[in-house]
Amino acid sequence: MKKTYIISICLFISFIIVGCSDFLDTNPGTRLTDKIIATDYSKVWDFGYAPYLYLKDGFSSIDNNLLAAITDEAEQTSTSSNAELFNNGSWSAYNNPADVYSNCYKGIRAASYFIDNFKDYKNRLALNRDTISDHQAQYKKDISDIGWMRAEAHILRSWYYAELIKRYGDVPFVNKVLSINENTILPRTNYDSIVNYIVSEIDLYKDSVQLNWKTSAFISYDGRIDKGAALAIKARVLLYAASPLHNPSNDINKWTKAANAAHDVIALKRYSLDASYSKLFVSDYTAKSNESIWAIRLGQTNTLERQNYPIATIGGKSGVTPSQNLASDYEYKGTPNALNPYINLDPRFGFSIVTNGDTWNGRTIQTWDGGSDGLYNKNASKTGYYLKKFLTANINLSVDTKYQREWMVFRYADILLNYAEAMNEAFGPDIDNGFGMTARQAVNAVRARTGVAMPVVVAVDKTEMRIKIKHERKIELAFEDHRYWDLIRWKDAEKELNKPLLGIKSVKNTDGTFTYSNIEVENRVFDASKMYYFPIPQVEIVKSNGVLIQNVNW
């Protein structure tokens, strides 16, 4: 149909669908649109695209920036940031700056509205058309597109439920638009039941979405859900369901299901590791890469650069700055250099993090004590590092230059690491279960990427391989909105998020060399008695009159 990027959904839909406070509220206003729909077939697409309106990109997770700032990956420079509420343990059911509860239910409602109210789309599309003339070919294309879109709505509804249970655990569940006469105050449905629903929906509709937008006659629709994206959602949901937080008895069957689901994505043979880790996350290259499985289009912007360029770079605000906790975990590929700790590191370090002495954006970065980007300058990085991953180099912010940006929801390396983890837990590091790839081989494939070429992992058993896989996820997926959820699902958050965040201090010596030492940036707080789940927003608890039960200790 007539959309290149899914973000360009008309304001008409925003008015009609967003009118309700959340999915569980009824909205009589939507019933008034039937006459409009009957006389304007383009409204079918408007309602079909509406579920995409509520997708959240990871570039604006908190403080209009990356979620990395609430993990051991990074620190938010601003002293008044919302990330600090997480880091000092003061967030609550009344004030959760990373809350997505209402937004997800709006997305669910938009999907359900389209599914429930456009079953007769073929007749609606035929209205006011001469199906005997040359409009017939367009009519057939439109029928195909709306058919795909209806399957996409089922997958998107599953995605929003996946995002809810990842945060809140058990949540209220309904898979239709409730009428004004139905009870809209619903109790919570248990996590496993919703996982089963997500899996069943994806299994039912995975072959009804487009196989691959990039190679279809509808390439301009790339960005919508296709089969690879649907299967990737299933793989992630089952991996999380198999993890210790949700699988305390370590049911191996759950790990086997997760491994099978990840293998289903691999078996499509559509994706490959990109030859350039540094280019993969920048500008419009993200969506074009064969590593990209599903990327959200965001249009032309320079917000991320303004938020995160070094303070001495014109227009930069420092923003989310990498920690020494993360930096110290990058392996050396060669012999460490006593005078420069950043030489001979895993190449992904230099692709992701800006350090003292780097040349970037036409200038030398000076994080040393007294340098233009140093710790004690106003609004400078508190960690002694700056972010490079995702940022387009050499953007002239003084004249507001902008570039296309996409947020990669799923990529092939992510799937390989999902597969490696599930296979290792189910079968150990070196049994392929007939799939032709072991856990060890999957991890080593990620490490062998062109331009990275890290040595193979050394692990003698499942326990050692588990440690290696966790490490590889921390490095390969740094800043990509995985770390927090990995620590949560592994039940490692109380260990990693309940200790000081570290930075690096650089001192320039008289001979021009530098001396580096670790510094403590701040103490972090993670209360294991409650913080493994987000609190249900207190307003929802109050509205339910006792039907909704709050998560423990919130």
Could you characterize the architecture of this molecule?
The model is unreliable at 1-32 (pLDDT under 50). The strands form 6 sheets. This protein has a two-stranded antiparallel sheet with strand order 1-5. The protein has 554 residues and is of the alpha+beta class. It has helices spanning 11-17, 34-39, 43-49, 83-87, 101-117, 121-126, 135-168, 191-205, 227-242, 252-266, 277-280, 285-288, 303-308, 324-327, 347-352, 412-427, 439-447, 462-476, 483-490, 493-496, 538-543, and strands spanning 74-76, 171-172, 188-189, 292-301, 320-322, 353-354, 359-360, 363-364, 386-387, 403-411, 501-508, 514-522. It is globular, with a radius of gyration of 24 Å. It has 3 domains: 1-57 and 98-222, Alpha Horseshoe (Serine Threonine Protein Phosphatase 5, Tetratricopeptide repeat); 62-93 and 303-401 and 492-554, Serine Threonine Protein Phosphatase 5, Tetratricopeptide repeat (Alpha Horseshoe), CATH 1.25.40.390; 226-275 and 409-477, Serine Threonine Protein Phosphatase 5, Tetratricopeptide repeat (Alpha Horseshoe), CATH 1.25.40. The protein has 21 helices and 12 strands. Strand 7 (359-360) and strand 8 (363-364) form a beta hairpin.
